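User: Can you help me understand a structure? I only have the sequence.
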Amino acid sequence: MKLTVVGCSGSFPSAESACSSYLVEADGFRLLLDMGNGALGELQRHCGLYDLDAIFLSHLHADHCIDMCGYFVARYYRHDGGRCAPLPVHGPEGTEQRLTTAYADTPSASSMSEVFDFHTLKSGHFEIGPFSVRTEKLAHPVEAYGIRLEHGGKSLTYSGDTGVCDGLDDLARGADLFLCEASFTHGKEDIPDLHLNGREAGAYAERANAGRLVLTHIPPWTDPTRTLADAKAVYGGPTEVAHPGAVYEI
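Assistant: Let's start by predicting it. Here is the structure, written out as tokens:
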């Protein structure tokens, strides 16, 4: 598997990064995890507009899904080659309605489904292309899912957005790479069922015996060096902060 960080800023884009979006590739199959603010433009640095094979939306907050509206335009109104065939989109219940409402002026109530093939996420196991997938509903104010991808004996876990909860332990266990949100600063913010801080992300990685921890979804107002230090204080493995364009071979 190859993971490319398209965007990793939390809550809103920074001057350096779009919001959450991660491209995972294996056997020529391209799966995009989330498409937050600014991600569609950045994605084109790494992948053609019409080269994606599936999309996973962890939840329906704008910083994880709003650029799907722009992507709808690219797929629905494509003049060169005609309208695109429906692309599989795996998201929480109500994803189609959420995107239609956000766009606000689709040609019809069903226009989104003409270019996106919506699949409703639940906790469980299934396949996406060459990937064996496990999803778990995690702790967040809206319905939100973390995901574990396995391929060729390797595993990648992406937390999406979550507060402290048992489900993340199960997803992260033994992962070769653990891409974990760390929005909060240890000792500063403490709001249950919303986000993790660096120390909590590190503790999950340590309990899971993860091979590598990559911290992501750090908002522009948060000091990433402090978040990194907090994670390293409790996790002994390789740890770094995500940055746009970073590539990981798993």
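Now, to help you interpret it: The first strand starts at residue 2 and ends at 7. The mean pLDDT is 97. Let me know which part you'd like to focus on.
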